[in-house]
Amino acid sequence: MFESYLDNVRNKRPVVHCITNYVTANDCANVLLALNASPIMADAPEEADEITGIAAGLCINLGTLSKDRADAMLKAGKKANAMGIPVVLDPVGVAASGFRINIASKLLNEVHFSLIRGNVSEIRTLAGECDHKEGIDVISEGSDDISKAINLAKDFAKKTEAIVVLSGKTDIVTDGKETFCINNGHPDMARVTGTGCMLSSVIAAFLAANNDRVTAGAAAVCAYGLAGEMAHKRLGSKDGNATYRNYIIDAVYNLTEEDIKEGAKYEMR
Amino acid sequence: MFESYLDNVRNKRPVVHCITNYVTANDCANVLLALNASPIMADAPEEADEITGIAAGLCINLGTLSKDRADAMLKAGKKANAMGIPVVLDPVGVAASGFRINIASKLLNEVHFSLIRGNVSEIRTLAGECDHKEGIDVISEGSDDISKAINLAKDFAKKTEAIVVLSGKTDIVTDGKETFCINNGHPDMARVTGTGCMLSSVIAAFLAANNDRVTAGAAAVCAYGLAGEMAHKRLGSKDGNATYRNYIIDAVYNLTEEDIKEGAKYEMR
Amino acid sequence: MFESYLDNVRNKRPVVHCITNYVTANDCANVLLALNASPIMADAPEEADEITGIAAGLCINLGTLSKDRADAMLKAGKKANAMGIPVVLDPVGVAASGFRINIASKLLNEVHFSLIRGNVSEIRTLAGECDHKEGIDVISEGSDDISKAINLAKDFAKKTEAIVVLSGKTDIVTDGKETFCINNGHPDMARVTGTGCMLSSVIAAFLAANNDRVTAGAAAVCAYGLAGEMAHKRLGSKDGNATYRNYIIDAVYNLTEEDIKEGAKYEMR
């Protein structure tokens, strides 16, 4: 199903404009380079639309949000919409403050997102269901009830006309019609900062280099999760989350179509 | 003496709000995740007190200081004081500019810090003793005269009603009454950027998860220093400070109460 | 030719003030520490000249440019000029926006740079030859025609009275009179974010610790490229760009004068 999605990224080398947080920007740039994509990390409002103008995809990430960064996001998002290139939203920790919720709402009102990726807490907050607050790197276990999670994702996809990627024990990728349930990845990825941010960057590259966006999103989730599994197998007894971070990026670097064919674990619902 | 202090962090998973510099924010987030704590890195003034409101500890770090970040620190610090949660100050490079000294003074006037951690140059500057300037990552050798260092730390602890951690060849942890002299750590840690910032984050997590704050601070210093020693033993002949950085975080990830029991090197003065 | 240039850095431990982007600031700090230099990363306009005042070298990097950061660059650059310490400019992605071009022009008008390092696209943009746009981490292959590249570098060196380092398959270092063509490095360095930024930081340290600036620049380019080669040899089949990043910094940490004597590949033109 996912043939050529990864190779399209490696061959087309899409320029991906990331307006992202300073905590994991380095990891996001390196994971894009691992895919052979071409990252541009830039967040000044003065240049946001011009930078997007030379990109094939845009990734907006709400970690370490500021007023200026939010302004850049709006400008870049509108430019991307005008160009028709994919825009990914990663609403990091949106439940944690009214400031984030307000900016996220504004973005959702003024920019059409191709894909929104978050955990249960983040997607619920965007969907207006609750304002449950927790640490940003805590992956909610709320997705145990898989059919509830699917409904949350599908409803939000229909409402926003975006593909929704709901990250959890099982990752859900849906455009409201087609739904992928994906079981790649490893629980210890939650112990590495930026694994979510990196995934969103990877998704932006996959969307930028492929036409069928919902399948491209699912392929990206499988590919990145699989890299997380392969990286975990390399870990020795003295290794921890720092080495794991490096090995995840390394695994993305070395990942092949063959690996994905053999290792992707998903079902359509 | 330090039994259960580490395990309390691992089990309680305190949310630690870090208002920190962009140079080492990634390392601080990963070292907190290595402890199984839950980092939130956020520095917008618009959300600072709300983010602190969901945290169990606050860590304020003056590296890459800006006006906005200083504003966030004041708001978050006051909120933390109102909540009664621990607040740690890491006055990175405070001796390097009047801008930093002024903001540090304002913070010390308006926020009660539970613990202040710095090297001799930084603590002396805060204490108003001198404005000796040097590179931020240079660890002053001024602490050779251990009793002078102890007096500096104790006096400043009494003045600020904070625990003071004076980092040097021997680390001193004191609340003005109880004083720990700690000989864990490795000199090569000074060749890795962010080892001080990471230690301050680790301390914030230990204070957030334990009641006896001075012992918690000392336990954190022993634990982190010991991780630095264990990481150093893993290094091969071609490894340098980048691999050392990763191994330090890895060692924190794998550190046990047993390790601390066997490896903590301290005496009470 | 390059004897003692590296050891001068290791022994003098120059303080290098970096006003740089948040994507690779951590790597720049660590590569400076790998050289035993002393990094200060600080970008607030309020303290820029004071921080430069305690430095032996200044490195200005246009990645993740903002109005405030640009303000700090101008102030720090003028202070460095007044002090007579070396100032390095890395015009990251300058071709990507009018905002960057305008700030770069202002900097070139108001600050005298000792050395400017960029790829063909960046140097051409600064020289006013074109405004070709591409991903920031894409290293242009335009330098295949080596004599054209040399002319570009020499002309720009004469115009700016700066040493110019033109990074490409062959790196060119010239002050308009003496010209080094350097063939160290490895193509895979382009797959690691920040290899250019790190090189610019390394150059700033070499210029700060040595008197003959054009030779110091060439020595830095050889040394860093050689570290990239040595690091590449360590890579195993499962390693990728994350491990490569770490090994490059590790190799700088372990690099010796002997290595440079044996491994430097350059010719004078």
What does this protein look like?
The structure is a homotrimer of 269-residue chains. Chain A has 269 residues and is α/β, with parallel strands linked by helices. Chain A has one domain: 3-Layer(aba) Sandwich (UDP-N-acetylmuramoyl-L-alanine:D-glutamate ligase). In chain A, 50% of the residues lie in helices and 14% in strands. Chain A has a 9-stranded mixed β-sheet, with helices on both faces. In chain A, helix 2 links the parallel strand 1 and strand 2. In chain A, helix 8 packs across helix 9. The longest helix of chain A has 22 residues. Chain A is globular. The two termini of chain A are 15 Å apart. The relative contact order of chain A is 0.16. Chains in contact: A-B, A-C, B-C. At the A-B interface, helix 5 and helix 10 of A face helix 2, strand 2 and helix 10 of B.
Describe the secondary-structure layout.
Three copies of one chain form a homotrimer.
Chain A: H1 5-12, E1 15-19, H2 25-34, E2 38-41, H3 48-53, E3 57-61, H4 67-83, E4 87-90, H5 98-110, E5 115-119, H6 120-126, H7 146-160, E6 163-167, E7 171-174, E8 179-182, H8 195-209, H9 213-234, H10 241-254, H11 257-263, E9 266-268
Parallel strand pairs in A: 1-2, 1-3, 3-4, 4-5, 5-6
Antiparallel strand pairs in A: 6-7, 7-8, 8-9
Helix pairs in contact in A: 1-8, 2-8, 2-10, 4-5, 8-9, 9-10
